Structures are given as structure tokens and as C-alpha cells.
């Protein structure tokens, strides 16, 4: 179920603000009844008519992109930089599920399904995100424990993480570390390492839940299969019902 103004805005008919105005001025009908309440929730089965025009609900689409470096994770950029949306040929109003930094590569989901996107991003749903970071130096056992238990970023402790050192390179004095988290705070991985004095030199998201980069070169994308989408919905529901 989604808020009426959101569904109207997502249909591409008008902005969310204008949709709110149309609702409060009595121009919107749901299943033949005028609705003026802004919080009114509708599902895919409701017929919504705005100013006499039935809205077209877009089919839901779900993409998995192997994000390259040097592309920004927004729907448009005021500095004219290339966005992840530019990489996908689809006229629907899709947007990224969460963010990867300009210089971060790897798994990024994109969709026009707002509810799904919010659920995937919400830390309470504990969807695993697996990052591979190349850092300077070698993690001490104490720092590994700190990362696992949570470090303080902006006065807030990060939740429990899984940490695995995949490789150390004595010549370049760098390490490759796998970090699994389910939060998605801004620059979280970089900040987790920098809180302990390490710099992230390269960062890639290797996996979200069971979705990895298999078969996708940098910049390539594919639609999720219906089976994958239902599997994600099952995961989200399991988390919800176990709370
Ligand atoms: N954490 C970061 O620091 N950057 C990203 O792009 C993703 C997670």
C-alpha cells in the first residue's frame, strides 16, 4: 500500500506537491469516491482518477547494475555528470536503491517500486551488503573486533558487521578486506575504516543479499528475474515477521 499522492506522482502525471493540491481540492477519485485525505493508502488494485483522467500505473521493474567508477548515483546531476540512470535504457521513472559513491563500483539495484526500495534500504530489514575494500596497512586483531562490534561514526555506533581479511600485500602495504553490513549510512564503509585510521583506496560492493555481479561487466545491467524479485520479497517479509 502506498500513499495516494506518491502513486499519482510516480505515474508521471505531475509532481508530488501538485498531486497533494489535487487531492485536497477534491479532484481525485479512488474507485469512484472522492478522496481528500493526504495520507490515504492505495494498492495496485485501486482505480485512481485525477481530474477525470485515469492514471496509468507503471509496471514495476527491477534492475541490477554493475556500477562503474565515475558515475553518480542520483536520478539527475546539476553538474551534468553521468548518472546511473543514464546507463539504463528504460523510459520508466526508475531510481537507485540506496547509494554508491562516485568512485565506488559494483552491485546497485534500481527500480520504480518505491515501497520495495524503502524496505531494501531500511536497516531493520537487515539485508546483507557485502563490500570489498582495499585499504592501506594491515588490520590489527583489535581493529577487526572493533569493526565487528561497531565503531562510532558521528556519535552513533554502527551495528554488528562481519569482517574477513581476504589478502594482505606486504610489498604495497595494503589489504583486501570483506565487510558485510546491513546499514547504508553515507560513506559508511569508508568512515568505518577511517574511524580506525585506515584509508579506503578502492571500494566495490560485491553482493546485496544473494545478488552478485556474475555475468555483468562494469557498466552492464540486467533485469532481475521474477523469481529473484519474489525471493527478495520473501527475505523482506521474513525479517518483518521475525521482529
Ligand atoms: N560505503 C561507502 O563508504 N561508500 C559507498 O559507496 C558505499 C558504502
If classified by CATH, what would the architecture of the largest domain be? Answer: 2-Layer Sandwich
For the record, the CATH class of the largest domain is Alpha Beta
Total number of strands: 17
Provide the CATH topology of the largest domain.
Alpha-Beta Plaits
* CATH 4th-level superfamily of the largest domain: Pseudouridine synthase I, catalytic domain, N-terminal subdomain
Strand content: 25-35%
Q: How would you state the average pLDDT, rounded?
A: 93
- Please write the string of helix (H) and strand (E) elements: EHHEEEEEEEEHEHEEEEHEEEH
The number of distinct helices, counting runs of at least 4 residues, comes to 6
Rg calc: 21 Å
Q: What is the approximate shape?
A: elongated
What ligands does this structure carry?
Answer: uracil
Helix percent reads: 10-25%
Query: What is the number of domains?
Result: 3
Classification by helices and strands: alpha+beta
Structure characterization notes:
The chain has 243 residues and is α+β, with helices and mostly antiparallel strands. The chain folds into 3 domains: 53 residues, Roll (Structural Genomics Hypothetical 15.5 Kd Protein In mrcA-pckA Intergenic Region, Chain A); 93 residues, Pseudouridine synthase I, catalytic domain, N-terminal subdomain (Alpha-Beta Plaits, 2-Layer Sandwich); 81 residues, Alpha-Beta Plaits, CATH 3.30.70. Helices cover 23% and strands 29% of the residues. The protein has 6 helices and 17 strands. The strands form 4 sheets. Strands 7, 8, 9, 10, 13, 14, 15, 16 and 17 form a 9-stranded mixed sheet that branches. A hairpin with a 4-residue loop joins strand 13 and strand 14. Helix 1 packs across helix 2. The longest helix is centred in the last third of the chain and has 16 residues. The structure holds uracil. The site of uracil has 8 residues, from helix 5. Uracil binds next to helix 5.
Amino acid at each position: 500500500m502506498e500513499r495516494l499522492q506518491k502513486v499519482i506522482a510516480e505515474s508521471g502525471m505531475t509532481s508530488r506537491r501538485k498531486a497533494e493540491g489535487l487531492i485536497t481540492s477534491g479532484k481525485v477519485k479512488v474507485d469512484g469516491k472522492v478522496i481528500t485525505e493526504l495520507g490515504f493508502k492505495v494498492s495496485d488494485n485501486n482505480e485512481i482518477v485525477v481530474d477525470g483522467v485515469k492514471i496509468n500505473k507503471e509496471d514495476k521493474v527491477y534492475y541490477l547494475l554493475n556500477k562503474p567508477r565515475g558515475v553518480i548515483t542520483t536520478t539527475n546531476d546539476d553538474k551534468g555528470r553521468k548518472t546511473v540512470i543514464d546507463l539504463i535504457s528504460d523510459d520508466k521513472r526508475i531510481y537507485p536503491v540506496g547509494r554508491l559513491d562516485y568512485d565506488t563500483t559494483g552491485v546497485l539495484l534500481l527500480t520504480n517500486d518505491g515501497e520495495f526500495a524503502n524496505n531494501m534500504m531500511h536497516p531493520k530489514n537487515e539485508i546483507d551488503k557485502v563490500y570489498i575494500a582495499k585499504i592501506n596497512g594491515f588490520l590489527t586483531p583489535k581493529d577487526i573486533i572493533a569493526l565487528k562490534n561497531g565503531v562510532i561514526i558521528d556519535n552513533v555506533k554502527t551495528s554488528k558487521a562481519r569482517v574477513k581479511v581476504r589478502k594482505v600485500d606486504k610489498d604495497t602495504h595494503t589489504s583486501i578486506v570483506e565487510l558485510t553490513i546491513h546499514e547504508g549510512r553515507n560513506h559508511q564503509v569508508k568512515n568505518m575504516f577511517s574511524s580506525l585510521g585506515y584509508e579506503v583506496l578502492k571500494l566495490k560492493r560485491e553482493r546485496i543479499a544473494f545478488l552478485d555481479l556474475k555475468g555483468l561487466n562494469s557498466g552492464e545491467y540486467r533485469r532481475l528475474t521474477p523469481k529473484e524479485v519474489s525471493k527478495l520479497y520473501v527475505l523482506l517479509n521474513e525479517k518483518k515477521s521475525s521482529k
